[in-house]
Amino acid sequence: MPKLWSETIEAHRREVRAATLDTTAALVAEHGLRSVTMSQIAERTGIGRATLYKYFADVEEILVAWHERQITSHLEYLAEVRDQPGDPGERLKAVLESYASISHEHHGSELAALLHGGEHVAQAQQRLSDFIRNLLIEGVEAGDLRDDVPPDELTSYCLHALTASSSLPSRAAVRRLIEVILAGLHPRT
Q1: What single DSSP character describes residue 87?
Q2: Which of 73, 83, 139, 152 is a Cys-bridge partner for 145, taking CB atoms 3.0 to 4.6 Å apart?
Q3: How far are the Cα atoms of 2, 129, 170 from residue 177, in angstroms, in the given order?
Q4: How many structural domains are present in the chain?
Q5: Are residues 85 and 173 in the same domain?
Q6: What is the pTM of this model?
Q7: What is the full DSSP assignment across 125-178?
Q8: How many Å is the Cα radius of gyration of the chain?
């Protein structure tokens, strides 16, 4: 089979998959989690039901794939933020602010409850933990952050404190939360 043909087929499959994920998310937003059917998804996406079933077994599987894509996108964004120029403290603050903002915008729902139990979430949490832990270690080595608490404990402190961002009423409240978290990371004087 010519290489161009296989690339075209793969590109088509990626496009169908992406369209299916986007359509399903839109339908859930419009009609609610329990109201969306495979028939609706196929019709709105513009593909046959049989084709849709070649890609996904059910609506829940589509939503898990959509969620994995969202998490991957968030982690890529956080990695970009982490890799910006600046000292470790500035980069840590930027990552914490970015993560808190994402959490605030995508706070709890029936859909989140369904999707946040998967293995992909545990892996993403570990990557986020590693981002923060490594920045904390760099900050301690630079003398910008406290060294009297082990990095794993400080990482846990940050992540647990950041969970509050999803229930805060405003972006201003999220910014205040970040300032409180950062104050806890400064060296004791």
Answers
A1: -
A2: 139
A3: 56, 18, 11
A4: 2
A5: yes
A6: 0.83
A7: HHHHHHHHHHHHHHHHHTTSS--SS-HHHHHHHHHHHHGGGGG-SSHHHHHHHH
A8: 21
